[in-house]
What we know:
about 400 residues, alpha/beta, six-stranded parallel sheet
Amino acid sequence: MALRTLDSLGTLSGKRVIVRCDLNVPLKDGTITDDGRVRASLGTLNTLINAGARVVVISHLGRPDGEVKPEYSLAPVAQRLSELLGKSVGFAPETTGPATTAAVGSLADGQIIVLENLRFQAAETSKSDDERKAFAEQLAALGEAFVSDGFGVVHRKQASVYDLPQLLPSAAGTLIETELDVLERLTEKPERPYSVVLGGSKVSDKLGVIEHLLPRVDNLLIGGGMLFTFLAAQGHSVGKSLLETDQLDRVRGYIRDAEARGVNLVLPTDVVVASGFAADADHETVASDAIESTRFGADGLGLDIGPDTASAFADVIAASKTVFWNGPMGVFEFDAFAAGTKTVAQALTEVDGLGVVGGGDSASAVRALGFTDDQFGHISTGGGASLEFLEGKKLPGLEVLGW
């Protein structure tokens, strides 16, 4: 079967269309600090508005764990959506209920409303099929068609992602179409040389993608907190750096596998070691096999790849035709430890081919460091979903759309 797209829903003018977006944006004191996901939703929403649909937007924000927590309200998101769309966007302070039903029922053609945070309802993320379905039925009563466009949640078996599209005529939005097109280019017939750059804090978060991609890539570059498990697997001391000792044997296996397959496994040759985890921590750059030789001794912890490594990574990226990057190279939130991530991001903007930023912290990092979305071939809206797709896993939210 093929993915059902908007065309499959027929004429939408005058119809109430529920759209599952991923508007899970970072907030600080009620202000959105990165509106990338809101902007990413505009394509589908404008298409529906221009078609005369009566648009009902649903999303989660944060992890309120089934409780109503004002700091996770979608009200600021509705306001930002209004600014970006250039038209009034309604907001329903309850996800479901008589007031919400009335507000949705009063929509005119081309109007739009955002409902309050789905995860204020415990049933949204319930492990019970019956609980999820009951909540999905409440949501389905608000619409006549459903559009799934929250790529960042399609790997979740949740009420609004998995159960709801089974209750209404349903299709994928343009954002999901775009994401899948890019991911297929990364997995089916990538233009070579093909390089994957992995960072972030834990090796365990990336085990599946490493295993699945090793037979497919030409270069695998390892940075971020996970690099220390690779260094330890080679017998190097890493001080108090992040280390997953339970993954050492598996990582040794990856190192052997890469060598056997002729994959160029690029590990850091130098790291920035700090006295502690703080923005103003004392730090120095040393060879990656000499982390405990700094004045901090065994108490030092690595917080970024070093400049030589960053330069080497940039060279590999520059020579590639296809690059997928997921996970910062260091603690980019601290200026002193952001250089590695910034160098990799800059190199990705200069790829003569397809350069993909794999969502999550990577997307936040490039924006925080001053880059704009249009400098990259693609910035994914789904870190976890992208990784699971690249692992070859089935994604429940796509399967129910015919994928």
